[in-house]
Structure formats: C-alpha cells, structure tokens
C-alpha cells in the first residue's frame, strides 16, 4: 500500500442493546463516550450510534432503528459483532486506486463529508469475512469523530482510567483461512509474520475427538498492523472451537480485539474492581510457568509471579530480552448472559519488548476457551 496505511483506528460494532454497550464501555472498560450519530444520520441510516474512545482506540456501536440500515442487515444474520474495521490513511485517492488495481471490491467511490469541524474522506471495501467491511479514512486535520457523528463538547464518562493505549491486533476465526491470507497479501499488501498449530490430542488429554487450530498472523509492513487468522485443524473439524465460533457467529468473523495497555497489573485490578469477568488461566499454568520462561531464556521479569497468578495474567515471549503479558475477557455472550450478544471478546496486552504472540499464551487461551465450551455443553 506504499506506506499509506497509518494505523488501525477502531471497530464498528453492531448491537441489539445500545444502552447495555454504553454501560459496558463507559462503566466497565473506562472508555469515554465522545459522540453520537446526528439526527440526520439516524434517519438516513436507520440506526443510532455512540462512539467511545480510550487512548487511540475507537469503538463505534450502532443499533438498528429501522429495517433498512446496515446494522439491521448485519444483525438479521449474526449475533452482535464487528461489522467494520476502520484504518487511517495518508492519501485516500491513492489508497483507492491501489486497492482497486490490486483487485479490491469498493462499496462506493471515496466520499467527502464536511461539517463545522472540517472535512473527512472515506470509502469502504468488502472482505472475505462477508458481512465485515474494511473502511479507510483520511482525516486531514479533521477535529470531529467520524462522518455523521456529532462530537460532544465534554466527553461523557471517565477519561481512560484503566490506561488503554490502542488496538494492538485483531484475530479472525474462519472455516478456511487461505482466501483471507491471499486477500490480505495480494490486495492489502500484508506479509506473513507468525504461525502456529496445535491440537488437544498433542497433550494426550483427549483419546478421541478433541479440537485444534492452525493460525497465521499477517502484518502490514509499514504501519505494523497485525491481523491474526485461525482455522480448524483436523481431526474433529466439527468439534473445533474455531468451527464452533463460526457457527455461533453465523459465519466467519472477528473473534477478538487486543487492546494494549501501559500497566497490565493496574488495568486488570481495575477491571476486576469494576466486575468485568476474565478468562481463567488453564490449570497448572503458574506451576509450569517458571520452567516455561527458563526454556525461553527469560531469566527475570519486572512483575511478581504471585501477583500475576492472583490476577490471572499470562506471560510469554520469544527471546531472552523481551516478553509480553496478556489476559482475556469472557466473550460477550457470557458477559451479558445472552447468546445474541455473540462470541466476540477483548484481550488486554502489555508488550515488554516482544512484538510477537507467544505460542504458550496462544495455547493457554485455546485451552481456556476449550474448557469453557466443554462446561457449557456438559
């Protein structure tokens, strides 16, 4: 993309209960509500939207007001979920021409929106994720939020008390990921970055059946934006948690978004104090952790292992002088006690010099989700 993509701005999330999501982002996650859809946009688009911000991460939530809007069409086929991902670019015209040349399918020509805060240009393209679009935005000093959104003079809610920084990466679950990988590489210009595969049978825990995955992370070389992609690994395709996600989601889609933080210990304490439910670490994880870190050559970390165990924070790395810390929220269906809230969830991540993903933590998340799914079906 000739260094045109600058950063991942955020997600556009389609929901059935907008007030519930407002309480979640503002009261639980420490986002500030910074704007909402104008009356004109609500009439034209048939949906109401709120925009939430923490650090450089933006989440737009939209709820249908009528049957003709994009949110209504998305929710007629899916539970709540990510309907669009927004990227900020330098030159919208150049990006449009390059993407079209590479075989992208634009939904419209680039459009310019003007209001009292300036002008903003944008267009969207379809993706292999079917009902999830990618949106490209050139802000050019624009002081507003997004097209058609009215920015509040004073944000509503806390001002990022949990220390969130930005969207670190996104992870998609697909029944077959090769089309997505080829599309990311040949249309968007992403490059292979990291891969892993494993199965529950690897540990001898499952005599028959079980679940597995193959994962490939792609990176946009100029901005460093990373998109991870998972597919089921045989045997037992049908029982794979990746396939289970796709069935619950009504098709392929984004499984989770990782939010980077400045101090994960402080953030997790804050989340737990606010009543946010987090995924537990697999059994015996912390008993095995010192040995795991030693194998990686990581001789010391800044955090107290007892504190990490108390809070359920995972640790991993790929080289001796760097590591990362992660924890995962329960999926939305579990958080809200409603299957229509969907299987999407958030990850919290702090990087201490490691730009990778950590195969050990990747496996730990897999095992934790596996245990949760088994408990739900027991």
Can you give a write-up of this model?
- The chain is of the alpha+beta class and 378 residues long.
- It contains 11 helices and 17 strands.
- A 9-stranded mixed beta sheet has the order 6-7-8-5-1-4-3-2-9. Strands 11-12-13-10-14-17-16-15 form an 8-stranded mixed beta sheet, with helices on both faces.
Write out key terms for the chains shown:
17 strands, eight-stranded mixed beta sheet, 2,3-Dihydroxybiphenyl 1,2-Dioxygenase, domain 1, 28% helix, alpha+beta, 11 helices
Q: DSSP strand (E) fraction? A: 25-35%
Count the beta strands. Answer: 17
CATH architecture of the largest domain: Roll
Poorly predicted ranges? none
- What's the alpha carbon Rg, rounded to whole Å? 20 Å
Task: Characterize the overall form.
Answer: globular
Count of distinct structural domains: 2
Q: Name the CATH superfamily classification of the largest domain.
A: 2,3-Dihydroxybiphenyl 1,2-Dioxygenase, domain 1
Structural class per helix/strand content? alpha+beta
CATH topology of the largest domain: 2,3-Dihydroxybiphenyl 1,2-Dioxygenase, domain 1
User: Into which percent range does the helicity of residues fall?
Assistant: 25-40%
Strand order of the largest sheet: 6-7-8-5-1-4-3-2-9
Mean pLDDT: 91
Number of DSSP helices?
Answer: 11
Question: Gap between N and C termini, in Å?
Answer: 48 Å
Largest sheet: 9 strands, mixed
The helix-strand sequence is EHEHEEHEHEEEEEHEEEHEHHHEEHEH
Name of the level-1 CATH class of the largest domain: Alpha Beta
């Amino acid at each position: 993309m000739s260094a045109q993509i600058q950063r991942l701005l955020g997600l556009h999330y389609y929901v059935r209960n907008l007030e519930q999501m407002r309480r979640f982002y503002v009261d639980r996650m420490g986002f500030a509500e910074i704007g909402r859809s104008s009356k004109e946009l609500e009439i034209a688009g048939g949906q109401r939207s709120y925009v939430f911000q923490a650090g450089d991460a933006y989440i737009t939530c939209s709820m249908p007001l009528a049957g003709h809007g994009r949110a209504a069409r998305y929710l007629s086929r899916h539970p709540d979920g990510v309907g669009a991902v927004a990227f900020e670019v330098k030159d919208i015209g150049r990006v449009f021409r390059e993407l079209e040349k590479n075989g992208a399918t634009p939904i419209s020509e680039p459009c310019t929106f003007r209001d009292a805060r300036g002008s903003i240009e944008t267009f969207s393209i379809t993706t292999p994720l079917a009902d999830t679009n990618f949106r490209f935005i050139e802000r050019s000093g624009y002081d507003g939020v997004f097209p058609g959104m009215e920015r509040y003079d004073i944000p509503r809610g806390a001002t990022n008390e949990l220390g969130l920084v930005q969207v670190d990466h996104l992870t998609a679950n697909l029944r077959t990921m090769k089309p997505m990988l080829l599309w990311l590489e040949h249309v968007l210009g992403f490059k292979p970055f990291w891969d892993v595969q494993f199965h529950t049978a690897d540990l001898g825990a499952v005599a028959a059946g079980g679940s597995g995955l193959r994962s490939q992370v792609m990176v946009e070389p100029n901005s460093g934006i990373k998109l991870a992609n998972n597919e089921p690994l045989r045997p037992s395709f049908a029982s794979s948690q990746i396939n289970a996600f796709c069935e619950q989601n009504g098709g392929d889609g984004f499984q989770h978004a990782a939010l980077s933080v400045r101090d994960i210990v402080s953030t997790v304490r804050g989340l737990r104090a606010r009543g946010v439910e987090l995924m537990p670490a697999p059994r015996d994880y912390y008993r095995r952790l010192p040995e795991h870190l030693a194998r990686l050559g990581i001789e010391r970390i800044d955090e107290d292992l007892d504190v990490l165990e108390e809070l359920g924070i995972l640790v991993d790395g790929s080289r001796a002088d760097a590591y990362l810390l992660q924890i995962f929220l329960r999926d939305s269906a579990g958080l809200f006690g409603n299957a229509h809230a969907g299987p999407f969830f958030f990850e919290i991540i702090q990087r201490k010099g490691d730009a990778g993903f950590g195969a050990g933590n990747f496996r730990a998340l897999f095992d934790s989700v596996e245990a949760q799914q088994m408990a739900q079906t027991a």
